[in-house]
Amino acid sequence: MTQIPRRHLSREHFAFARALAQGVDARAAWERYLRYEGERGDFRQVKTLIGWIRQEFAAAARREAKFGTARLVLIDPARLSTEGTPSPPSLEDFAAACGMEDFSEAEQLEAYREAHGDSMRKGQRRERLVRAQLQALHWLEDLAAQDPGPGDSVHAWFAPVLAQRLESAGLPTLFALATRIHGMGSAWHAAIPAIGRVKGESVREWITAHQATIGVRIGAHAAIRISTVDRSELAAVVPAGAALVPLEKFVPPGALDGSAGRYRAPRELCMLAADNDHQAICA
Question: Which CA distances in Å does 130 have to 18, 51, 88, 247?
């Protein structure tokens, strides 16, 4: 039985965790840093990943005998959230509301702490926790974050379901995936079941962001839908010719593309939005 490679911690995981610690909404942080993991519509997936990330952080800290840090990164700062608690007024407003304008500042502060001490202490505890967690995450990132390499399995970097679909499509490594994306452009995922446009684009963006360490340069053409590219622009990427190339990048010579064929009906009578044989096949 083939063993599935252990997932790696990426720098995106640490950026996501820092955003959560600072109170950013989990869905918004997911959209910014972890879109390549899959859709955020199922929040159970987000919560599962958050739990996995924190456990991996703690395990990395324990391997360095930093047991206090391990406990620290497992704490959810939202437990100490002050959301829903009215913000305490300023000392000046409090003194005015209580008729204490003529009292000394020390007396005003004593009354203020008595009235709003719980709220102040809760906010201060959360601020201390956030500062400590951010320091711990920066230390852990230098220790545990990895950069993707060309021979890495897709299972090491993507969610299990997505990784399995990629592997089943003949893309077991990041090098194979990056080569496919560069070769086929935005339609790289068209023949892979259950990988739609949004997920396909997010995977392409992630691969492009890490192309330096993966070792495959992703051309700018990969982000452009072939159907929207002018013929001259496409020819600048792949010269016209009949060599063996992916269909999406094939540019037939103008004299052979069928646009002036004998059996061409007027465009307004055609059901396909195509001007030549290549566009008709793609449609």
Answer: 9, 18, 20, 52
